[in-house]
Design a protein that fits this description.
The complex is a heterodimer.
Chain A lengths: L1 E7 L2 E7 L5 H22 L4 H4 L4 H22 L3 E3 L15
Antiparallel strand pairs in A: 1-2, 2-3
Helix pairs in contact in A: 1-3
Chain B lengths: L18 H22 L5 H6 L6 H10 L4 H14 L5 H4 L3 H17 L5 H9 L1 H34 L3 H50 L1 H12 L8 H5 L5 H4 L4 H23 L1 H8 L4 H15 L3 H14 L1 H7 L18 H9 L4 H37 L5 H26 L5 H25 L5 H21 L16 H26 L35 H18 L1
Helix pairs in contact in B: 1-9, 1-19, 3-9, 3-14, 3-15, 4-16, 6-13, 6-15, 6-24, 7-8, 8-9, 8-19, 8-20, 8-21, 8-22, 9-10, 9-16, 9-19, 9-20, 10-16, 13-21, 13-23, 14-19, 15-24, 16-17, 16-18, 19-20, 21-22, 21-23, 22-23
Classes of the chains: A alpha+beta, B mainly alpha.
Chain lengths: ~100, ~575
């Protein structure tokens, strides 16, 4: 996972990307897993349309969640957080630029 | 005390969950504990544990900022209020939150972040000395324990409603989960979980709202059905439920002019500024950010999602009032046995019952996960703010001074366990109050309204003395308690009814009184006591702080959408437009 990435408006820092520990990957992962489950339920399980008023709610929510999850993972991929390799001292906090 | 829920039989659950729903829950809990473990591996010192090393980007702290508040009060309280009063409940957001959040980011945050204090009470200590500091730290710590208990109670009542577990078993299990991830990962785990929770709660409530609207025939269908049911059995007339102003039913004030004054001054100014600008639960999220610019943007970025939360909390409440037969019956003045408390359906059950009626299994599990997430995050926020204040401000400054960092980290972890145990007992206390909103607002009135007066005066008037600091706080808080006792029902049957104001109006009045009393006494006392030397006020008082210490030098080079003031301006325009539209 050790790469050199330029994220901070010009100056290059040496370090590795946060990878799976990036909060955006965690959010994307959870929403994606939920999306898969709901989509499968929407396709294979009883849509219970008496409750929802004739909409296959699981299917639609599942697809929306898959899209949302993919956006987060793509964001993290395109703009990775770089974690400095050296351990920084407490009163000089590491600057994580995730914009 | 908490026993009222135990009478419901285990087989008689409010919601019928299936394996698919449990799967959604298990996945969520796996993520929560995983985040605790992951964040825990990176905690190396007390600053890491309490302020997450001041390393968070602004969008993370901004979402955590509103998620910390998106707990039981917001979701159950606001949907309950939406079911009962309708649209006027939006005042809690557009009047009662956004202006104060913008003010915090623009005006006050530079002092908090720039002075490098580790907590809001520590700012009190540096500005006013030990008197005001002790009052603030103690009242804050006690309030957090109470509110953590309320969050825990609602968490427990959902588990009870869903699984049929006795309330006390649900309370202990829920508390154990919260405890595990905060003791492992500290504030970082709390903040990461808050951000995750934000997305889960949106994923849960948005489909619910859309399905509800679909079923009722859109916005016009909702209006028609609300109008048909309005005015019966004590429900407010349709016009009052469908327009935000003047909001008499919400404020409990009969006169429409006084109602507007009460909402703008009592809720919009005193209560909300007191809550959002001095409450360490909120400010702590901004203190964890990576720069003064991010700290200032934290509440401002939070303001954008915050202004749309009414559409997924209040609107489902209103939908429940027409779609759920039990809630419609309660609104028409009837009583329905059962409910999550076991002692009858209340407005607090609106959201749960709407979920039961509308969501297919699967989505139902996601919705329950969202609610549990919100209450856990709310409680975790209370506890992580509590343990910081206890370790740094109470133990570190008064009881055991000058020990090494590892000692205070250990105190923080022990405090977390202690706070969780106490929260289980305060949850029992919360079970005795029917309208959770009133109870909370009353508390905030006591603690936060005088705080805002003291802070704002102390930040901009260098003459204000140390004595004035604590005298203002104590007298303000006591005057709020006095007003609450004299009102009709702020303390339930304990109130005497001498002042003819009840409901939310009593909370507004108590807070406003506290604010005015604090302000007047602080000025009077300052004029007869010795001010602090100007040299000690650098970074704490506006006139004594160099301008460049209050802004981020890099910020001028950012594009407009990453700068504090333009963002705040956009938020302000949007919230004014929303107020005009409803």
């Amino acid at each position: 996972m050790s790469t050199t990435t330029n994220t901070n408006g010009g100056h290059t820092k040496s370090g590795h990307t946060a990878g799976i520990f990036d909060i955006r990957n965690i959010i994307g992962g959870l929403l994606g897993i939920y999306g898969v489950i709901l989509t499968l339920l929407g396709v294979f399980a009883d849509p219970q349309e008496d409750k929802t008023g004739g909409v296959n709610a699981n299917l639609w929510a599942g697809i929306a969640l898959l899209v949302a999850g993919a956006i987060f993972i793509a964001w993290a991929k395109l703009r990775p957080v770089v974690v400095p390799d050296e351990v920084e001292h407490e009163d000089e906090p590491a600057h994580m630029d995730a914009h | 005390m908490a026993g009222s829920g135990i009478t419901v039989l285990a087989t008689d659950t409010l919601i019928n969950a299936t394996a698919a729903d449990y799967l959604m829950l298990v996945i969520y809990f796996g993520f929560v504990v995983g985040i605790g473990l992951m964040a825990g591996r990176q905690v190396s010192g007390s600053l890491d544990f309490f302020l997450s090393g001041r390393s968070m980007p602004a969008w993370v702290t901004g979402l955590a900022f509103i998620s910390a508040n998106l707990g039981a009060v917001e979701i159950m309280g606001m949907s309950a209020s939406g079911a009962e009063f309708g649209i006027p409940t939006v005042h809690y957001f557009w009047i009662g939150a956004i202006p104060a959040m913008l003010f915090l980011g623009v005006v006050m945050m530079p002092f908090y972040y720039g002075s490098k204090v580790r907590s809001v009470p520590e700012f009190m200590l540096r500005r006013f000395g030990p008197g005001a500091h002790l009052v603030n730290s103690l009242s804050f710590a006690i309030a957090q324990l109470l509110i953590a208990g309320i969050n825990l109670y609602l968490l427990g009542s959902i588990v009870h409603a869903m699984l049929g577990w006795p309330l006390w078993v649900a309370l202990i299990v829920a508390a154990a989960v919260v405890l595990s991830y905060i003791t492992l990962g500290g504030l970082k785990a709390a903040i990461y979980n808050e951000v995750l929770q934000f997305f889960v709660i949106v994923a849960a409530l948005l489909p619910l709202t859309l399905l509800g609207l679909h079923k009722v025939g859109g916005w016009n269908g909702l209006k028609d059905q609300l109008t048909a049911a309005a005015g019966k059995g004590g429900a407010a007339p349709a016009a009052e439920q469908l327009n935000s102003w003047p909001g008499q039913a919400l404020s409990g004030i009969d006169s429409s002019v006084l109602s507007v004054v009460g909402i703008v001054f009592g809720l919009g100014f005193v209560l909300s500024f007191g809550y959002w600008t001095t409450n360490f639960v909120e400010v702590q999220r901004a203190m964890a950010s990576d720069s003064i610019s991010s700290a200032r943007k934290t509440p401002i970025i939070g303001a954008f999602p915050k202004m749309f939360i009414p559409f997924i909390t209040i609107l489902p409440g209103m939908l429940a009032a027409v779609l759920v037969t039990e809630i419609a019956k309660v609104k028409a003045g009837g009583t329905v046995p059962g409910g999550s408390s076991g002692s009858g359906v209340t407005y607090n059950d609106s959201l749960l019952l709407l979920m039961r009626d509308l969501l297919p299994n699967g989505l139902l599990g996601l919705a329950i996960a969202g609610l549990l997430a919100a209450f856990m995050a709310g409680m975790a926020a209370n506890i992580s703010a509590f343990n910081t204040v206890l370790s740094y401000d109470l133990v570190g400054d008064y009881l055991v001074k000058g020990r090494d960092d590892a000692y205070y980290l250990r105190v923080g972890r022990i405090a977390t366990v202690g706070a969780t145990v106490i929260a289980i007992f305060t949850a029992g206390l919360a079970a005795n109050f029917s309208n959770i909103m009133t109870y909370l607002q009353t508390l905030f009135g006591f603690f936060n309204a005088p705080l805002f007066a003291t802070f704002i005066l102390g930040m901009f008037w260098k003459r204000m003395s140390a004595t004035a600091g604590w005298v203002g706080l104590v007298s303000g808080t006591l005057s709020a308690v006095a007003v609450a006792f004299l009102s009709q029902d702020a303390f339930g049957s304990l109130s005497t009814g001498t002042i003819p104001v009840g409901g939310q109006g009593a909370a507004f009045l108590a807070a406003s009184t506290a604010f005015v009393v604090d302000l007047v006494l602080s000025v009077v006392v300052s004029l007869v006591t010795k001010p602090k030397p100007a040299a000690e006020l650098k970074g704490l008082v506006y006139s004594e702080t160099p301008r460049e210490d209050l802004v981020d030098a890099h910020e001028a080079s950012y594009p407009w959408y990453r700068r504090t003031l333009p963002l705040a301006g956009v938020a302000l325009v949007m919230v004014i437009a929303l107020n005009a539209a409803f």
